[in-house]
Amino acid sequence: MLKRLMVVLDSDIFQPKSLDQRVLVRPAMLLWKMIYNILLGAVTAAVSLWLVFPILNGSTRRYALPFPAWYPYDIRKSPYYELTYLHQSVGTSLVALGDYNIDMLISAMMMYVGAQCDILCDNLRHLGGDSSDFASLLTHCVKHHTKILKCKTPNFTASFDSRQKICRFAEECNDFFNFILLGQFFTSSVCMAMGLFRLALVTPSSFEFYTLSFSILSVIMQIFTYCWFGEEVESKSSKIAYATFESEWIVQPSHVKKNMLIFVESAQHPVKLSTFKLFYLSLDTKKGPTIVIKRLYCFMTIAEFTARQVREVIDECGFVQMGHPPYSPDLAPSDYYLFSKLKKALERTPFFF
């Protein structure tokens, strides 16, 4: 599917036709590159802090690893500990690099959909005054629009039958990253919730505090990047119908105006990228995934306020804080002696109610 999308992007109809169109799409590409570098810095800082955190807080003396895990060997022996630490560092870096580039690839695909909408709007604005040129150029614009959107075209003329090709590109892009985004948003929400809860419990300005902060910042930027480019696609595609009326359509014959109005009617619905229609990639807090960030922020403020209040009361009362025991203190000795003897005596005894 990705290879087919790359072939479509390389076709002539998707290429800028003039220097002005190249200048028109350049800001979107520069914005994507800027977000690429910013997110790369945040991800690098988060991964680096996670990997060097045991070294910074001195927990390597207790053979602590960046990510606690079970291994079928004793990691407290050298060189097993050093090799395991190196394995986690390399593995985590590669996973983060792959995940990050998948995010930016999907963002680039959304950026290209928005750029095609800009090119289409420019083509529509420069439709000529000659009726024959206007009709042929309008047919070309309809073909371009259909390739982006993959929407069904009313059979009002044979020249517009090719319009069943701008929805297609957008819909195939959406099909490509449906499962990816669904998994990303689910795992990102869980990681943010757990990270915000831990952030409310750690000491401010500590190494763990900065590690969690950069991790949460990376996840927020990931979600914001999807929502930003999804909002750009929706905004730019909504201008296609208005761009048609900026052409010299007034002097055209009635049959050309009729075809143009049918095109405008079908172009009034903007492109909305989504994840299985569960929520749309938009900055709108009522329908986009940004509502997740809003809810998690409320949770963080409540958890942080509650945790701080509890710690202050404990300190005022002079209580000594103890760590969690390795077993549940609710287990009574009777669970091991009395009840087991009772069950043995009642073995194979039928009960009738």
Automatic annotation (TrEMBL):
<dbReference type="GO" id="GO:0005549">
    <property type="term" value="F:odorant binding"/>
</dbReference>
<feature type="transmembrane region" description="Helical">
    <location>
        <begin position="34"/>
        <end position="53"/>
    </location>
</feature>
<dbReference type="InterPro" id="IPR004117">
    <property type="entry name" value="7tm6_olfct_rcpt"/>
</dbReference>
<dbReference type="InterPro" id="IPR036397">
    <property type="entry name" value="RNaseH_sf"/>
</dbReference>
<comment type="similarity">
    <text>Belongs to the insect chemoreceptor superfamily. Heteromeric odorant receptor channel (TC 1.A.69) family.</text>
</comment>
<keyword id="KW-0552">Olfaction</keyword>
<keyword id="KW-1003">Cell membrane</keyword>
<dbReference type="Pfam" id="PF02949">
    <property type="entry name" value="7tm_6"/>
</dbReference>
<dbReference type="GO" id="GO:0004984">
    <property type="term" value="F:olfactory receptor activity"/>
</dbReference>
<keyword id="KW-0716">Sensory transduction</keyword>
<dbReference type="GO" id="GO:0003676">
    <property type="term" value="F:nucleic acid binding"/>
</dbReference>
<keyword id="KW-0807">Transducer</keyword>
<protein>
    <recommendedName>
        <fullName>Odorant receptor</fullName>
    </recommendedName>
</protein>
<dbReference type="GO" id="GO:0007165">
    <property type="term" value="P:signal transduction"/>
</dbReference>
<keyword id="KW-1133">Transmembrane helix</keyword>
<dbReference type="GO" id="GO:0005886">
    <property type="term" value="C:plasma membrane"/>
</dbReference>
<keyword id="KW-0472">Membrane</keyword>
<feature type="transmembrane region" description="Helical">
    <location>
        <begin position="176"/>
        <end position="197"/>
    </location>
</feature>
<feature type="transmembrane region" description="Helical">
    <location>
        <begin position="209"/>
        <end position="229"/>
    </location>
</feature>
<keyword id="KW-0675">Receptor</keyword>
<keyword id="KW-0812">Transmembrane</keyword>
